[in-house]
Design a protein that fits this description.
Elements: H1 2-10, H2 13-19, E1 23-25, E2 36-49, E3 52-67, H3 70-84, E4 87-89, E5 92-104, E6 114-125
Parallel strand pairs: 1-2
Antiparallel strand pairs: 2-3, 3-6, 4-5, 5-6
C-alpha cells in the first residue's frame, strides 16, 4: 500500500508540480527543500467478516503537507485531497478523507514550516 500510495501522488501532475519527488514515508530528509509530503501509516488492519478475513486491508494514513508559508501548505493539501479523496483503482478499493488540521511546527516561529495534516482511510487489496 505504501509504495502504491506514494506512486499515486508522484503521478499526479498537480502534486508533482508542487513537491517534485519529495514524498516520503516517516520523515522528510533534513536539509531537503520544502514543500514536501510526509506520509505516516497510523494503523493498518485486516478486514474481517463473521466467516473470517475478507481479503482487504484497512489503513489510516496521515499525510503532512509541509511548506514555508501557510498558503503554500494549504495549496499542497488541496492538491493531495483532489487526488486521493474518493479515489479507487489499482489495488485501492477506496481512499477517503477523514479529517484535516492546520498546524505550525513548535518553536519560536523562525524558519519553522507550516503544516496541514490530512487523515485518509484506505481500503486496499492485501
Amino acid at each position: 500500500m505504501e509504495e502504491d500510495l506514494r506512486a499515486l501522488l508522484l503521478g499526479a501532475p498537480a502534486v508533482a508540480a508542487l513537491v517534485g519527488r519529495r514524498i516520503n514515508f516517516g520523515r522528510h530528509p533534513q536539509g531537503e527543500p520544502l514543500p514536501a509530503l510526509v506520509l505516516t501509516t497510523v494503523s493498518d488492519r485486516e478486514g474481517l467478516t463473521l466467516s473470517g478475513p475478507d481479503g482487504l486491508q484497512r489503513a489510516r494514513v496521515q499525510i503532512d503537507c509541509y511548506a514555508g508559508s501557510y498558503g503554500a501548505a494549504k495549496e499542497l493539501s488541496r492538491a493531495v485531497r483532489a487526488v486521493l479523496h474518493g479515489h479507487s483503482g489499482g489495488g485501492f478499493r477506496g481512499v477517503f478523507l477523514d479529517g484535516a488540521r492546520d498546524l505550525r511546527e513548535p518553536g519560536d516561529g523562525t524558519g519553522r514550516p507550516f503544516r496541514v495534516s490530512l487523515d485518509f482511510h484506505t481500503i486496499y487489496s492485501a
